[in-house]
Amino acid sequence: MRTKIIAGNWKMNNNCAEAVELVKELKAKVADAKCEVVICPSFTSLCCVAPEIKGTNIKLGAQNVHFAQNGAFTGEISADMLKSIGVLYAIIGHSERRQYFGETDETVNKRTIAALGGGLIPIVCVGEHLEQREQGITEKVVVEQTKLAFTGISAADAEKVVIAYEPVWAIGTGKTATSEQANEVCAIIRNTIKALYGDDVAAKIRIQYGGSMNDANAAELLGMSDIDGGLIGGASLKADAFAVIVKAAG
Ligand code: PEP
User: Fold this and answer.
1) Is 94 a catalytic residue?
2) Helix, strand, or coil here: 89?
3) What pairs with residue 92 in β-bridges?
4) pLDDT-based confidence at 250, cuts 50/70/90?
5) Which run of H or E residues covers position 209?
6) Is the distance from the beta carbon of residue 218 to the nearest atom of ligand 1 less than 6 Å?
7) Do 163 and 206 form a contact (C-beta atoms < 8 A)?
8) Residue 181 in contact with residue 139, Cβ under 8 Å?
9) What is the pTM of this model?
10) So what's the pLDDT on residue 51?
11) Is 73's pLDDT higher than 90?
């Protein structure tokens, strides 16, 4: 049985005080969660939030991680830096990073390797654009992104990775993939992992759905056979809605 994982991607929202407020509200509401609960505030809020979640079931994630251990990479943050303040997860290759910040399958792979090497659990995002879905190449796109993300990664490391299937057309648009569409692609991703690493890793690896998941549609999506959790944007900024999603994963 795979433990479901619900992660909130706060994106570029909430200063330190606002982040602490949100966590204070959230703590009690998710205290009895049956799934893993992760919040990913902005880099500047990680240190403010860390003491607030100490001793709770909420885990800390970052929204990115650099592929080098240290050096002349102005503006970047390494896995070791994140680990040293209690971060356990790192979102890698979010479509907004691919779209606005030049992230490629190659840099996603490098960041994934660096995160694993630094003791973080990568949450690797893959997903097709609307035109790609309309052209009927969703499977090709997602299989390729998955294969490239895992290049050079051992089976022992691969099973720790969380994959987030996020159709780009569903992110922040209010257009959710149907539960069947989402499950179909998550199953394709699992089969890709099976082809790369075999049955055991494929059975263990967790695959989230992300894209306008909210308190109203979470239960149906999370009830699907190949969906092991959610990566939540907008709805993770509201404690009540996020808590309903966490409960739906239980
Ligand atoms: C995301 O940014 O990963 C995401 C899924 O956003 P939203 O839930 O707002 O669509």
Assistant:
1) yes
2) strand
3) 124
4) confident
5) strand 206-210
6) no
7) yes
8) no
9) 0.98
10) 97
11) yes
